[in-house]
Write a structure and sequence with these properties.
Blueprint (H helix, E strand, L loop, with lengths): L1 E4 L4 E7 L4 E5 L10 H7 L4 E5 L16 H14 L6 E6 L1 H12 L4 E7 L8 H17 L2 H11 L2 H6 L1 H13 L2 H12 L15 E6 L7 H10 L3 E6 L6 H4 L1 H14 L1
Parallel strand pairs: 3-4, 3-5, 5-6, 6-7, 7-8
Antiparallel strand pairs: 1-2, 2-4
Helix pairs in contact: 1-11, 2-3, 4-8
Length: about 260
């Protein structure tokens, strides 16, 4: 891991391996460590780049709000700082997927392929926006404990919550250790993310759409529709997994990624 300057901030970044670059973008409110199952396996085949996003992990920030577009621009700047000239495969989970849609729109020339895991194309409705804004204020005043307690049951499939206690606890610890300011800034940014559903048909990249069978946040039926709307997308369901499919079943996710990268 190293801190890579992208202007006014630095992003704590894992960069290992050689070959085609694979950019792994974590979910909310996590850090690069959620990809450890991918980092350990895929860096023997590809150049794996896995940063902590602005404000998360060891990447400091004092922003009041960070939009998905700002996160996307940060990642493009990171690729510049790392001298990554060839197009990359972008792989994002949940909020990382929201950022991925913006990366497509703003930095299409940097992309060879797109992998979207357990995410959405639709924006928050009014109620969800209000809930995020209220949560942002609460986290700043009282810390992340209530938010974490609310989120944890939704992240892992029920069976995996008991069979994978180490992964569950590690995820909880990362969330609890995330700076309240970063949590609030990202909540505000997610609340105003745009609707990209009608633009899916224009995304002509080879795409892999991954979803856990028991994902309660981004259900498989919803993600199948995303894949069906994209001209070069394939859908893969990760059986037995929930919202954190890459962490719950890294072997299945890695196999799907390797097959996709080998075929495209």
């Amino acid at each position: 891991m190293s801190l890579v300057s992208i202007g006014e901030i630095s992003l704590n970044t894992f960069d290992q391996g050689s070959g085609a670059p694979l950019l792994l973008v974590h979910g909310f409110p996590l850090d690069h460590s959620m990809w450890r199952g991918q980092i350990n396996d895929l860096s023997s085949r590809y150049r794996v780049i896995a940063p902590d996003l602005r404000g998360f992990g060891k990447s400091a920030s004092q922003d009041d709000k960070v939009t998905m577009a700002q996160f996307a621009d940060d990642l493009a700047a990171l690729l510049d700082a790392l001298d990554v000239g060839e197009p990359v495969t972008y792989c994002g989970l949940s909020m990382g997927g929201y950022i991925g849609w913006q990366f497509v729109q703003r930095h299409r020339d940097r992309l060879a392929r797109l992998i979207q895991c357990d995410t959405k194309s639709k924006p928050d409705d009014d109620e969800a926006q209000a809930t995020r804004m209220k949560a942002a204020d609460h986290v700043l005043k009282h810390g992340p404990e209530t938010l974490v307690a609310t989120m944890m049951p939704k992240l892992f499939a029920e069976a995996n919550r008991s069979s994978q206690p180490d992964a569950v606890e590690a995820t909880r610890e990362v969330m609890m250790n995330t700076a309240p300011s970063a949590i609030a800034a990202a909540l505000r940014g997610m609340a105003e993310r745009p609707d990209v559903t009608n633009e899916l048909s224009q995304i002509d990249l080879p795409a892999l759409i991954l979803c856990g069978e028991h994902d309660a946040i981004s259900p498989p039926d919803e993600m199948r529709k995303i894949a069906a709307a994209m001209p070069q997308a394939r859908f893969v369901q990760i059986d037995g997994a929930g919202h954190m499919a890459p962490l719950e079943d890294p072997q299945a996710v890695n196999a799907a990624i390797i097959e996709f990268l080998s075929d495209t």
